[in-house]
């Protein structure tokens, strides 16, 4: 009689966590196909707490526990967020890996795009998009949650108010709530965040993806940091636009088994996030850390 494989977990515990184990089995299958280690960071882009923040670092590090000198793939879906947190995540990935790729099943925006620019290559499909890297500034709402706005929008808003005051000779009452937010410290943060985002992008591209073409690295960083050119922080930068910029990317077409496996895994996360009311999921073939909505 042939041996029947039995999970190491108890029957009830395994049943309660079956969907997590199914996702981890899919991670293992993708790893077998690529010969690389895969870790996953998927955020609820529709939730105010879905932004990339420093609190993500501890569960993120857990995904790489005891892993060094590996060929690493990071599958990321994120609306972006804190540049400093993105920098730390990239530093961790690069310090643990020989080679590093970023897989974008859907969207990696803003600070998540910055992480992608620090990879050796970006893996994309026809659903994938990056975005401009103009930084986001978090404003705390009355309920304590964070709301993210482009730094350039605050600076442009101030210029609009100044121009209106110059032409009309008086301040419209509608501008008062905005002026309450535009204190000197906030404006200084906006200016410095813009320059920091552009500088980080250029430095990472020169060090990794475009190390043989430093002049292209500067051009790409300037382009992606130009909020006035892109107009919308949510603008979709697809595979062809990524190639036109001069970045290193690989397109996986829908008929390829590898892309089908990546997309199915991503859909599992989206379904889990909606059903279980999650903010984020951190997962590897051995670690699973869901973060619930409070």
Structural shape: globular
Total discrete domains:
1
Question: What's the helical proportion of residues?
Answer: 40-55%
Residue stretches low in confidence (pLDDT < 50, at least 5 long) are none
In CATH terms, what is the architecture?
Answer: Alpha-Beta Complex
Distance between the termini: 50 Å
Q: Number of DSSP helices?
A: 12
Q: Could you tell me the mean pLDDT?
A: 85
- Per CATH, the superfamily is 2-enoyl-CoA Hydratase, Chain A, domain 1
Count of extended strands: 11
Which strands sit side by side, in order, in the main sheet? 9-5-3-2-1-10-11
The class by helix and strand makeup works out as alpha/beta
Write down the Rg: 21 Å
String of helices and strands: HHEHEHEEHEEEEHHHHHHEHEE
CATH level-3 fold name:
2-enoyl-CoA Hydratase, Chain A, domain 1
Strand content: 15-25%
User: What is the CATH top level name?
Assistant: Alpha Beta
Major beta sheet summary: 7 strands, mixed
